[in-house]
């Protein structure tokens, strides 16, 4: 193949977003004869998107030198800024700062009335976001957008509006911030910006959706990101982040087994090369799923890995401690996290967990204070999920204070909100509160209906700890499942599927003797004497 043929194929592959092929063809052409600056830029981008970060950085450095030698100082400055962005994302702060200083010096020499001054301002605004000064960052990003418009630079306009939107969300100005992010997403989905910036925008917007509990937008943009990634099989960056967002969406929707598989895949992708910031979020997603399923050791390990990766494991770890009966540790962890986070947008999940922990500690006044702050934040944000979380906290506090009528009204609002945004686990928890309030008001029949509905959802999700809590709340009653433990429910489902004790032992990695003991306990608890009767019970009670 001639160099010209390799170049043509490399350029065509780049247009098709076949990054591995583009990288291979352009690298081959470069080895035969040094590429022009335009093709060298394509090679650097394709190397990055194919997962060759070190090579991409080296190519960007080379491109910078070539642009300088060609007398294209402004283009060299832009190249230096993008290289700094890459190095920042890899955690190489000192080198990134050095390249920004180079770009700054170049603009001093050739003039600052250019789009490149806007790219430098993006870097400084990101630093303001990193230290928590969202107000200054918002102003700087607004100026970035203005520079981009003045110089008709679409990428710069998108970076400015994206950064401004994220900063406004951080300030609690959710409606205003999300409107800007929606506008940015239109530019992305219509193909107005390149692949690197497209990936950055997707991750930023989805992060904002998660921070604001905007589940509908999160689901919509996660689906769009998944399609974008699937259209580029060779794409390496962003795919791990995409998996984290997918795992979160699946968890919200109640597809916990699928979410666990996706979160595990995200952990693997984001661990190689090491040091990728999103790996902490991936471990946290795994931890949350293990906690909800009652898999304590796995949850502990995943929370630890999240913490080691720089992701605060709260509020999940505190809720795990609460499940373990370690109430003081739960309260201490949540209070510490809240003290460290003044930003209103990051407080709701911590406050919701603190209400539960303080009620478990018998501190109704403290729980009331936390619930009041959560209500204020939910009222300002006007997001359905937050409103449902706030109503749940209010109902819990009112129930603890002996106000079942007030608790019932708030619990029903909570259930309606969770049901509306299609989060079955949270909706089931709200139904437990509705049932408790009905029972306090003397309506045992209505309470039984609510408890049974919640139990069915918990069983479907394999939410063992919640089933156990529900049995305790209902005085050890069957909660719709004969009082079976999560493991006994697993065994019963396999019995109902026609499996022998030996087959069940193989499936669950248990001994034959242990399975026989489980089967005997199941028969005793549900009052049957044969596998056929146990199967009928399982179907009658929607356990399979």
UniProtKB/TrEMBL annotation:
SMART domains: HTH_LUXR (SM00421). The keyword DNA-binding applies. Residues 477-542 form the HTH luxR-type domain. Signal peptide: none annotated. The lineage of its organism: Bacteria, Bacillati, Actinomycetota, Actinomycetes, Jiangellales. Coiled coil: none annotated. Gene3D superfamilies: Tetratricopeptide repeat domain, Winged helix-like DNA-binding domain superfamily/Winged helix DNA-binding domain. Keywords: DNA-binding. GO terms for biological process: regulation of DNA-templated transcription. One of its GO terms (molecular function) is DNA binding. This is LuxR family transcriptional regulator. CDD domains: LuxR_C_like. It comes from the Bacteria. InterPro entries: Sig_transdc_resp-reg_C-effctor, TPR-like_helical_dom_sf, Tscrpt_reg_LuxR_C, WalR-like, WH-like_DNA-bd_sf.
């Amino acid at each position: 193949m001639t160099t010209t043929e390799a170049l043509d194929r490399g350029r065509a592959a780049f247009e098709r977003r076949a990054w591995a092929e583009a990288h291979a063809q352009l690298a081959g052409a470069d080895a035969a004869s040094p590429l022009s600056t335009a093709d060298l830029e394509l090679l650097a981008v394709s190397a990055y998107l194919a997962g060759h970060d070190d090579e991409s950085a080296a190519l960007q450095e080379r491109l910078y030198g070539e642009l300088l030698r060609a007398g294209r100082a402004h283009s060299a400055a832009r190249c230096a800024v993008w290289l700094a962005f890459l190095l920042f994302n890899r955690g190489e702060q000192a080198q990134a700062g050095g390249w920004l200083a180079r770009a700054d010096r170049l603009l001093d020499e050739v003039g600052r009335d250019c789009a490149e001054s806007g790219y430098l301002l993006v870097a400084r605004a990101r630093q303001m976001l990193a230290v928590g000064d969202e107000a200054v960052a918002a102003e700087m990003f607004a100026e970035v957008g203005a520079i981009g418009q003045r110089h008709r630079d679409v990428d710069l306009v998108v970076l400015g509006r994206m950064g401004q939107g994220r900063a406004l969300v951080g300030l609690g100005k959710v409606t205003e911030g999300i409107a800007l992010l929606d506008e940015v997403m239109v530019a992305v989905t219509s193909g107005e910006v390149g692949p690197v910036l497209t990936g950055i925008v997707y991750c930023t917007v989805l992060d904002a959706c998660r921070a604001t509990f905007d589940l509908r937008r999160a689901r919509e943009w996660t689906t769009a990101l998944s399609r974008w990634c699937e259209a580029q099989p060779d794409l390496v960056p962003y795919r791990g982040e995409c998996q984290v967002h997918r795992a979160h969406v699946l968890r919200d929707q109640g597809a916990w087994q699928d979410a666990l598989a996706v979160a595990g895949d995200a952990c693997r992708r984001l661990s190689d090369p090491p040091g990728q910031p999103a790996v902490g979020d991936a471990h946290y997603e795994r931890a949350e799923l293990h906690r909800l399923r009652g898999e304590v050791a796995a949850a502990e390990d995943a929370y630890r890995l999240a913490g080691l990766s720089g992701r605060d494991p709260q509020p999940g770890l505190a809720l795990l401690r609460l499940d373990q009966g370690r109430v003081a540790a739960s309260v201490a962890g949540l209070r510490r996290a809240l003290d460290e986070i003044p930003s209103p947008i990051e407080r709701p999940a911590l406050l919701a967990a603190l209400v539960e922990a303080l009620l478990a500690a018998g501190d109704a006044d403290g729980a009331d204070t936390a619930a009041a702050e959560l209500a204020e934040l939910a009222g300002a944000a006007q997001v359905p999920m937050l409103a449902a979380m706030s109503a749940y906290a209010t109902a819990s506090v009112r129930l603890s204070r002996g106000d079942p009528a007030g608790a019932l009204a708030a619990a029903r609002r909570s259930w309606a909100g969770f049901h509306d945004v299609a989060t079955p686990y949270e909706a089931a928890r709200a139904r437990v509160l509705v049932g408790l309030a009905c029972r306090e008001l003397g309506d045992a029949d209505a309470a039984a209906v609510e408890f049974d509905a919640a139990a069915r959802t918990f069983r479907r999700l394999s939410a063992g700890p919640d089933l156990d809590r529900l049995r305790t709340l209902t005085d050890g009653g069957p909660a719709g499942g004969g009082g079976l433990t999560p493991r006994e429910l697993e065994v019963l489902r396999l019995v109902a599927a026609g499996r022998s004790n030996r087959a069940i032992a193989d499936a669950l990695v248990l001994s034959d003797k242990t399975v026989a003991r489980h089967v005997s306990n199941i028969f005793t608890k549900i009052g049957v004497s044969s596998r056929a009767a146990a199967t009928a019970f399982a179907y009658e009670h929607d356990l399979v």
